[in-house]
Amino acid sequence: MKKEVQIFFNGKKISAKKGQTILEVAQENGIEIPSLCYHSDLETKASCRLCLVEIKGKKGLMASCATKIEAGMEIITDSPKIKRARKINLELLFSQHCEECFDCVWNFDCRLLELAKEYGVEKTRFQDRKKGYPCYQFGPAIFFDSSKCVDCRNCIDACEKFGTGFLELEGRGDFTRVIPSKNPKKDCIYCGQCILHCPVGAFEAVGEFEEVEKPLQEKDKIVVFQFAPAIRVSLGEEFGLAPGSVLTGQITAGIKKLGANYVFDTSVGADFTTTEEAAELIEKIQSNKGPCFSSCCPSWVKFVELYYPEFIPHLATTRSPQTILGGLIKTYWAEKENIDPQKIVVVSIMPCTAKKYEIRRPELKIEGLAPVDYVLTTRELAWLFKKHQINLENIKPEKLDNPLGSASGAGVIYGATGGVAESALRTAYAKMRGGENPKIEFKELRGQKGIKKAEIKLGSQKLKIAVVTGLVNARQMMEEVKRNPAAFCALEVMACPGGCVGGGGQPLPTDGKIREARAKSLYSIDTAEEVRMAHENPVVKKIYKEFLADKEIIHKICHTSYSPKKKEVRFE
Amino acid sequence: MTNIIEKLKKSKLTGKSGSGFPTGLKWETVKKEKVKKKYIICNASEGEPQVKKDGYILQNFPEEVINGIKIALKTLGKGTTAYIYLRKDYYQKFGPKLKKLIGKFPIKLSKKTGPYIGGEETAICNAIEEKRPEPRLKPPFPTQKGLFGCPTLINNVETFYYVSQIAKGKYKKTRFYSIEGDIENKGVFELPADWTIEKVLKETKNYPDFDFFVKSGGGAVGEILLKKDFKKPLSGAGSLIIFNRKKTNIFSLLKEWIDFFHEGNCDKCVPCREGVFRLKELIEQKKIDKKTMDDLFFVLSETSFCALGKGVFTSIHSAIKKLIK
Fold it and tell me: In CATH, what is the architecture of B4-167?
């Protein structure tokens, strides 16, 4: 326990933990101090100079994000001097930010705009100096408009911490600029953490928001939506609800209102992924083939193909949930419903920007058709709902369509870090022990830590499992496996912190506390489910019996392949 | 040698880079840190335009500087490594001689990277660690966590020179004055630190008979002084630059300085990156928009991340106030 000390905010006594910064204490206690470049995921840079406060007995203004509290400290968060400094610095920030408010991921919930109003900022006091600065598109996933950038460098730090360090600072005599790396060894893996950590919307997903209506405008098509587990616990935030509000039925109803013909659950796809991946895991354990790596995070998959091609044989060939479900929709379900698969449009709502890239992987095609036609992010779905005046707060919930709408609890926890490993272990554990005394909860794999290691007893064997988020941590694990191939038998990697609940397609803002609330709700959905093991989901059983009856068809629908990759995102 | 810190304190020697921090206190702070690995950095980045005193000392008294560093090494004890962080041309010019003097002592030479701000003490730590040379958050101060996260003693070339003098009992409370500009008798002079500027100029035969003004304490961040300001000793870095008022175009001078700041800052914080740019725009348009300038000066001096913002304020503000009607 850290020592508590008393400090004063504008004369009001507050107790806080020693070692905290003024801004941290203020945020915990609902005291308003404006800040822009501060993000609890990243190291403090103190560069925006907005979170200024005065401290009695000290000269000048202090950046509250970089000033630690001291016992008895008397902090003033508002004074004519503070107001003046914030106003001018805001005007300087606006001078480098070319606004495009009608098309922005912050969706008018923008700190800059809010502060401009509060401080009486003249937004056009200085001419936009970044007019004409370039836009960059990173593959089919990310769009960077550098004329909106305010040089806070959060994107660079986030990319360094969670991604591949693809975003860099170009040092120039006059101004530094954020640019995509020219280094042939550095490539974007489309995780979208730059979007989540940019305070001013300089990054967005490709198509956000110009192309959201496209899937609904396709003529003479059957439009089938599916949505990922992480969406149901985060979309509410876009409508003013608390993080973690569970809205499965409301989202289903909303999508129907948009005009979709059917709405299925990506978690059902996850149940197939689990069943197949557990089989791969068991095979790898029993044949002593070295570790089995999860493969449902497309950023992680590209990372392996790019940086560790020698480890490709360790990536589970099992497809990700959205692509298995998409494949089943266009084969099994199409046949059952007597619909020409060519006429089906599958739209996935994903918490992820890399999924926009994943659906374009040519290896995934089944008889010439891509399993999924469009990926929209959580933010894009919210945008669509708002455009069509669908309010999640007062919509009547509807049930997901059958048969691809009822998932096991295991399929839902996929949205949180450790969820894929836990689901696979539930099934592997049950199968290896012939169904006796199943173990459901693997709490050692849960939680927001970037690296989690656990030893799981399975019969006479002890399985070493590692669960990782952030590719810097993944790199560390890969180096460990290089040194010691038996370091672990299973490795789950998600590029984004917290797993898909913290994905690059999720609502803004996203931080540690919000990710935790979203994950907690996923586990509570799981606990309430009757069926908590993927392979026991009646739908899964039925489809294996009726359709996925032999190895060939299983391979076609549920598996894929990988190949070494070279840098894809280049600008000359 | 153990009482060198006491001697430094008694001498009232202050840092000669311009900030004027008491040297004895700084040494004591680093000495008191209870870790084995410590560093010393001798700052020879001399980045202010037309300031030549550190170069002069390296040229004429390199053995004194090295001796000062050796005293610091001894004071901080085993496990201490020193770096001399040299401007590129100084590295080339003085490197071989310094290497000879260093011999087997754990003193390394390091070449300056980055622009002007690369001479700021925490930026130097970053530069030696091969990171982007820009200032770090303080605290922790370099005396606690500096180079490679270890307690680090950072002093200017001139400070180390005087440490050597103090150890030898030769210190006479002098300092080095780099005198440049529209005068005949340019050069670097070692003179009493408490002399008034007027006396320094007169004694060095650099007191012009024409109408003039002086930039004092640094070629860029320095303050503009007029005759009425000459009755006090020089503060800041040891630099005086004399300008013939009739022959000087004030706006082109302002432009020179603001360009220097625009190129030389690190672009990290909003007031310095954007404020300097907007000042530059106004200066280029020869527009003295008082309200806007006051606002920019206010955020530069009050809210900048490091001391450079304040330096920009001192430099440009004093020039406009005193030289433009």
Answer: 3-Layer(aba) Sandwich (3.40)
Residue A73 has pLDDT above 60, yes or no: yes
Q: How is residue A380 written in tokens? A: 């894009």
**Chain segment B9-36, per-residue pLDDT in tens:** 999 999 998 888 999 999 999 999 999 9
Q: Sign of torsion, CA A449 A452 A457 A463?
A: positive
- Both tokens of A193, joined, read 């953490």
Are B302 and A173 in contact (CB < 8 Å)? no
Claim: this prediction has a pTM higher than 0.90: yes
At residue B2 the predicted structure's pLDDT band, cuts being 50, 70 and 90, is low
Task: Tell me, rounded to whole angstroms, the distance of Cα B317 from its chain centroid.
Answer: 20
Tokens read off for B229:
């300001």
CB A404 within 8 A of CB A328: yes
Q: How many CB atoms lie within 10 A of CB A513?
A: 12
User: Which stretches within B249-307 are classed as H helix?
Assistant: 250-264, 270-284, 290-303
Alpha helices in A245-370 (DSSP H): 248-258, 266-286, 298-307, 321-328, 334-337, 354-358
Q: Which residues of A touch B132 (CB under 8 A)?
A: 169, 171
Alpha-carbon span B99 to B110, nearest angstrom: 12
User: What is the per-residue pLDDT across A398-454, written as a single tens digit (0 to 9) for each?
Assistant: 999 999 999 999 999 999 999 999 999 999 989 888 767 788 999 999 999 999 999
Q: Which two three-digit tokens encode residue B88?
A: 């590129």
Both structure tokens of B323 = 């030289």
Q: How far apart are CA B189 and CA B122, in angstroms?
A: 29
Mean pLDDT, residues A16-23: 96
Give the residue carrying structure tokens 């003085």.
Answer: B94
- Chain A CB contacts of B296 under 8 Å are 88
User: Which residue's structure tokens are 């070339």?
Assistant: B157
Dihedral sign (CA A299, A303, A304, A309): positive
Q: The tokens 């300092």 sit on which residue?
A: B175
The beta-carbon neighbor of B273 closest among A60, A88, A151 is A151
Contacts of B310 (CB under 8 A, 6+ apart): B300, B301, B304
Which chain B residue's Cα is nearest to A173? Answer: B263
Query: Which residue is listed with tokens 């090295």?
Result: B66
Distance CA A427, CA A535 (A): 7
CATH of the domain spanning A4-78? 3.10.20.740
CATH architecture of B250-323: Up-down Bundle (1.20)
Query: Are the beta carbons of B270 and A126 separated by less than 8 Å?
Result: no
What CATH number does domain B174-244 carry, 3.30.43.10, 3.10.20.600, 3.40.50.1370, 3.100.10.20? 3.10.20.600
CA distance A426 to B89: 67
Distance CA A555, CA A222 (A): 26
Mind listing the pLDDT tens digit for each residue in A88-141? Answer: 999 999 999 998 888 899 987 899 999 999 999 998 899 999 999 999 999 999
Contact A60/B278, CB-based, under 8 Å? no
Residue B278 to residue A95, Cβ atoms within 8 A: yes
Q: Which residues lie closer than 8 Å to A93 by C-beta, 6 or more apart?
A: A36, A48, A50, A112, A150, B270, B274
Beta bridge partners of B39: B81, B152
Q: Token match 């002086």: residue?
A: B214
Q: How many residues does chain B have?
A: 325
**Going by DSSP bridges, is the β-strand pair A52-55/A74-76 parallel, antiparallel, or unpaired?**
antiparallel
B256 vs chain A: nearest CA distance in angstroms? 14
ipTM exceeds 0.90, yes or no: yes
Domain covering A214-558, topology: Rossmann fold (3.40.50)
* Both tokens assigned to A267: 């978690």
Percent helix / strand / coil, chain B, rounded to 5: 45, 15, 35
Buried b (16+ CB within 10 A) or exposed e, A357-370: bbbebeebebeebb
Nearest CA-CA partner of A533 in A403, A459, A441:
A441
